[in-house]
Design goal:
The structure holds two protein chains of two kinds. By secondary structure, chain A is α+β, with helices and mostly antiparallel strands. In chain A, 23% of the residues lie in helices and 20% in strands. Chain A is globular. The relative contact order of chain A is 0.24. Chain B folds into two domains: 17-107, Alpha-Beta Plaits (2-Layer Sandwich); 149-512, Aldolase class I (TIM Barrel, Alpha-Beta Barrel). The chains are: A alpha+beta, B alpha/beta.
């Protein structure tokens, strides 16, 4: 499967990825409306980590051996068979936060208004995740697995 | 304010200096996302945590558009300050603002990029020819079209020998640079521009089959693998020069002058000389890199000859040696001297050429336009029968492929592109290169800013630019019924002047439109 790769040497810390992620996961998907009216009900699914001049976008890496799936007691955290993405079925999630506890990257957060886990879904329905498509410096890339390891 | 306060480090506010720009924020569009706050190196935008609002202070804005380009809702617009002075033909707003700045600072006015005074651009007054009826034009998409260019000394005559029933060349051909497209990237030093920018220029030159020039910044270790597509410069400061440096490139250029600041040296402030720059320039970290105005060992054509031949000796006569001069009043005679001194290439930099930093008065008032300089040099070298002994490169403010085609018709072998390459990498011409705060990550060494230029993207954009220009050059050549750039070189019959005086036409040696 394709994986998101952070190229921290080129991340400029503008956080446009966070902004576009929030919009993508809002109800309206309209940027001004999402920020004005839905601000309390939607969170970006990724975060830009920063230390000094170094920064990078951190989102779920959809691990091959996903601790969150193993730790999930309801089976809410699962792997989508067609894409290989690790997703959270919000109907089954009971908010025990075990996934948050075991995620080695800290890429899962509590959802904003409901008692369920919130994480990167690789932007279902889009050709590219919006963070990749909207990074002005191509510091977030989508690459095939073998390119990632190379 | 007395002198004692001043010594205490108190910086009086510069009341006379007014903002150049007004930053307007559309409250209906702004979502307080703070991208602008994070991207402005000049602290124009601020976030107030108590009010949870973003606001702008226009005074430090340089008009680089970084915030406006990245604003996800298009909420920001940047306009020239609307503070109008009472109109005055002599005391323009720019003249007044310069006086105010100097009254407040007591310093030389500095500027980046090229002359911004709106001098006539003679390329715009020269028009190209096209074929009609009697001499068919050529479709470059269907027929081969040659843009290959060789730079270097050409022999006076060719001697051929008959050998084994065939013919062999007996004349030694001097080393040549081979360009797939008749443009190269001009000298921009690592130090004045960032590592990523230098790398992108080298990579793009290599991909496009042309050359990039190190300027006086030395050749960074990582760029040495691109040496086959690099020209290394030996300038008055001799920064980064050693035998390995000279031999790792395809050609060596002696920089005598620069179009943006003829007669003036260079000054890279110590703050920009970080570890890597210091290593590449071979100077201590944090020291100012001062390039003297003249080479202290060149005071005559004979001295220049010594340096040219020292470099040829050091490079085993395997590399062409170029001499770069600024276009000044006597440029034709100087260029002739350079050729006679042994230069294989003479690069002429016109007064619209760019710079990382120059005194504003010099940038705006010294030198002559490249069009006249080029025409004068080409004519003079022809008259003296030495045009073949050196290739001529024109430089200084080339904006588009048509400028290049006109320059070649006027007598240039190739053209150096500096400013336009920076613009292709994202430069927005705010002309503040000398502050080291380039918001686009090009003319800076600040680690927060240099990462803004992704060299992969910059390389792609540069290669795209060269590709597009090559296509356009072929279209224009085809229109003229010319299928090789060699046939256009110095072919002034393909140029006609509009709106030029008789004298200007005579110097350009171009006919008026209709003639």
């Amino acid at each position: 499967m394709k994986r998101i790769v952070a190229r921290e040497e080129y991340c400029v810390g503008c956080r446009l990825c966070e902004i576009h992620c929030l919009v993508q996961h809002s109800k309206s998907k309209k940027i001004i409306k999402a920020f004005r009216e839905e601000r309390d009900s939607v969170l970006p699914r990724l975060r830009v980590e920063e230390s000094g001049c170094v920064s990078f976008a951190l989102q779920c890496r959809h691990c091959e051996q996903a601790s969150c799936i193993e730790a999930c007691m309801t089976g809410a955290m699962h792997r989508a068979p067609e894409t290989g993405a690790v997703l959270c079925d919000t109907d089954r999630c009971v908010g025990c936060w075990m996934c948050i506890m075991v995620c080695p990257l800290g890429a899962i957060r509590r959802g904003p208004d409901s008692h369920v886990a919130s994480k990167c879904d690789l932007c279902i329905g889009e050709d590219y995740p919006v963070c990749v498509a909207n990074c002005p410096n191509e510091a977030i890339a989508l690459r095939e697995e073998d390119e990632v390891n190379a | 304010m007395n002198e004692k306060d001043r010594k205490d480090g108190f910086q009086p506010r510069q009341w006379l200096v007014e903002p150049d720009f007004v930053v307007e924020r559309d409250p209906e569009k702004c979502i307080q996302c703070q991208v602008c706050v994070r991207q402005c190196a000049n602290d124009v935008h601020r976030y107030d945590e108590d009010d949870e609002t973003v606001s702008s202070d226009s005074s430090p804005c340089v008009g680089c558009h970084r915030c406006a380009s990245l604003c996800p809702t298009g909420a920001i617009s940047i306009k020239r300050s609307e503070l109008d002075f009472r109109p005055h033909g002599n005391w323009t707003a720019a003249a007044l603002r310069n006086v105010y700045k100097q009254a407040e600072t007591g310093g030389i006015l500095l500027a980046g990029m090229g002359n911004d005074q709106g001098l006539p651009v003679y390329w715009d007054r020269l028009l190209l020819n096209a074929s009609q009826v009697t001499n068919p034009s050529i479709d470059p998409l269907r027929e081969p079209m040659e843009t290959l260019t060789h730079l270097g000394r050409k022999p006076d005559r060719l001697r051929l020998l008959e050998r084994d029933g065939g013919v062999a060349l007996a004349t030694r051909i001097e080393p040549q640079l081979e360009l797939q497209v008749p443009v190269m990237f001009s000298a921009m030093s690592y130090g004045s521009i960032s590592y990523h920018a230098s790398m992108a220029l080298a990579r793009a030159a290599s991909e496009a089959g042309t050359y990039a020039n190190t300027g006086e910044g030395g050749l960074h270790r990582d760029i040495r693998p691109f040496g086959d597509n690099m020209i290394v410069q030996v300038a008055s400061g001799r920064f980064g020069v050693d035998s390995e440096y000279l031999n790792s490139a395809a050609a060596v250029e002696i920089k005598i002058g620069q179009g943006a600041k003829p007669g003036i040296g260079g000054h890279l402030p110590g703050e920009k000389v970080d570890g890597a720059v210091s290593e590449t320039r071979m100077i201590p970290e944090g020291t100012d890199a001062l390039s003297p105005a003249p080479h202290h060992d060149i005071y005559s054509i004979e001295d220049l000859r010594q340096l040219i031949y020292s470099i040829k000796e050091a490079t085993l006569y395997e590399k062409p040696v170029s001499v770069k001069i600024a276009a000044v009043h006597n440029v034709a005679a100087i260029a002739s001297g350079c050729v006679r001194a042994g230069a294989d290439i003479v690069a002429i930099d016109g007064c619209r050429g760019g710079t990382g930093a120059a005194p504003t008065m010099i940038r705006n008032n010294v030198g002559i336009p490249i069009e006249f300089a080029l025409a004068a040099v080409d004519s003079r070298l022809r008259e003296e029968g030495i045009r073949n002994q050196a290739s001529v490169i024109a430089a200084g403010g080339f904006r588009c492929s048509a400028d290049v085609v006109k320059a070649i018709a006027l007598g240039a072998d190739a053209v150096y592109l500096g400013t336009v390459a920076l613009v292709a990498m994202g430069c927005h011409m705010c002309q503040k290169c000398y502050t080291g705060k380039c918001n686009w990550g090009i003319a800076t060494q600040d680690p927060y800013l240099t990462r803004r230029l992704n060299p992969d993207m910059a390389t792609r954009r540069l290669v795209n630019l060269l590709r597009a220009w090559k296509l356009e050059i072929k279209e224009m050549m085809g229109g003229m019924g010319i299928n090789a750039i060699e046939s256009l070189r110095g072919n002034r019959e393909h140029l006609r002047g509009v709106g030029l005086t008789d004298r200007e036409l005579r110097i350009l040696d171009v006919k008026a439109a209709g003639e």
